[in-house]
């Protein structure tokens, strides 16, 4: 998923030297359809369009266990069960639509070079869905593009998330075990 388009994703795909099709989702359709809140992801879909395996957040071609699943699937084997994803809360349909709308509006504003307004919309979406790392990363990428291109600074992201979580706990937005649904 790369909301700034295929050109921004190309270096990552080339560096990975993938031998399988790679889809670049610049509109966030996959996060809406599949309901994931973190990246990077690995999603394996068979020739009939059936999702056979998914790992949301933490997927990496640098992890032998992830590579083994992909190779087993490409060889015609069963990829096995998808890893269990912990979800601290579930958004209702109205909240999910509002989050998706704010994400789309933010992407449109960013495409019009109205970055501050885009970040404002993404922050509003994050208030509704505080555990959504996809939203956080869009905000971070808009504010700190050098941390994402030409390479992703994972250490910076981990430190940034830690600081933001500490700030949210101090502000009473989240607790040490995560963020509750704000409107519950």
How would you explain this protein's 3D organization?
By secondary structure, the protein is mainly α. It folds into two domains: 6-74, no CATH class; 93-170. It has seven helices and two strands; from the N terminus they run H-H-E-E-H-H-H-H-H. The chain has a two-stranded antiparallel sheet with strand order 1-2. A hairpin with a 5-residue loop joins strand 1 (41-45) and strand 2. Helix 4 packs antiparallel against helix 5 and helix 5 (115-128) packs antiparallel against helix 6 (133-143). The chain is globular. The mean pLDDT is 85.
Keywords:
TPR repeat, 184 residues, mainly alpha, Thioredoxin-like_sf, 2 strands, TPR_rpt, globular, 48% helix, two-stranded antiparallel ribbon
- What is the succession of H and E elements? HHEEHHHHH
Content-based structural category: mainly alpha
Give the domain tally: 2
Which oligomeric state applies?
single chain
Strands, total number: 2
Beta-strand residue percentage? 5-15%
Biggest sheet overview: 2 strands, antiparallel
Compute the gyration radius: what is it?
17 Å
- Ranges where pLDDT stays below 50 over 5 or more residues in a row are none
For the termini, the CA-CA separation is 30 Å
Helix content: 40-55%
Looking at the structure, what is the overall shape? globular
Question: Largest beta sheet: what is the strand line-up?
Answer: 1-2
Average per-residue pLDDT, rounded, comes to 85
* Count of DSSP-assigned helices: 7
């Amino acid at each position: 998923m790369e909301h700034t388009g295929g050109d921004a994703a190309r270096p990552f795909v080339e560096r990975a030297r993938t031998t399988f099709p790679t889809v670049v989702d610049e509109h966030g359709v996959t996060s809406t359809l599949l309901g994931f809140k973190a990246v990077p992801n690995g999603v394996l879909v068979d020739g009939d369009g059936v999702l056979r395996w998914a790992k949301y957040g933490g997927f990496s071609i640098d992890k032998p266990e992830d590579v083994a699943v992909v190779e087993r699937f490409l060889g015609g084997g069963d990829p096995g069960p998808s890893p269990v994803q912990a979800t601290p809360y579930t958004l209702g349909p109205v909240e999910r639509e509002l989050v998706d709308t704010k994400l789309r509006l933010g992407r449109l504003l960013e495409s019009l070079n109205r970055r501050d307004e885009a970040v404002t919309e993404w922050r509003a979406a994050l208030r509704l869905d505080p555990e959504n790392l996809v939203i956080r990363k869009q905000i971070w990428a808009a504010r700190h593009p050098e941390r994402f291109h030409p390479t992703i600074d994972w250490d910076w992201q981990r430190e940034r998330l830690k600081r933001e979580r500490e700030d949210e706990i101090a502000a009473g937005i989240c607790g040490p075990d995560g963020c509750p649904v704000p409107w519950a």
